[in-house]
Amino acid sequence: MERNPGRGRQTANAAAPAAPDALGAIIERYRARPAAIIGLLQDVHRQFGYLPEEALERVARELDIPLSRLFSLATFYTSFRLTPTGRHRVCVCVGTACHVKGAARIVDALQRDLQVGPGETTADGEFTLETVNCLGACALAPLVVVDDEYHGRMDPKKASRIAQASAEAATKCTDGGAVPAA
Predict the structure, then answer these.
(1) Model pTM greater than 0.85?
(2) Residue ranges of domains in the chain
């Protein structure tokens, strides 16, 4: 896993909390094996979609793990987030191959379209824009991943169209597919 460069700025409202006993069940699963901290954090992250501070405090208290240790791991690994993400995750590779082929222009276009910077979530909670150092698909550079779907050989216009299509699909899902009246 890569080192976390300090992500976490966010503008959307926090996600709805998980069932109150869900965290307790996770804690109980790891009570007998407190050395499995990474697995525990992964399960908490999977449950909430991020690592809420209150959840980390409870884990620390109930398993007698220093809170600083949990935050150290949570901020070291890029697979963990300390803030909620949008319903749709837009990730732009800015590694060497993608950088050389114009990743910065793609990030600029998406920032303009989504009106957020890397590491931020749109005010409506729909999109989180992220950048990563490498996605391991350099032959497809520049690369954008939207909700785990890879889109290679991107340019700013294509990236904008993909973001717009995702937004339109999200609108159709939330309004039951109804077409707005003209």
Answers:
(1) no
(2) 20-76, 88-171
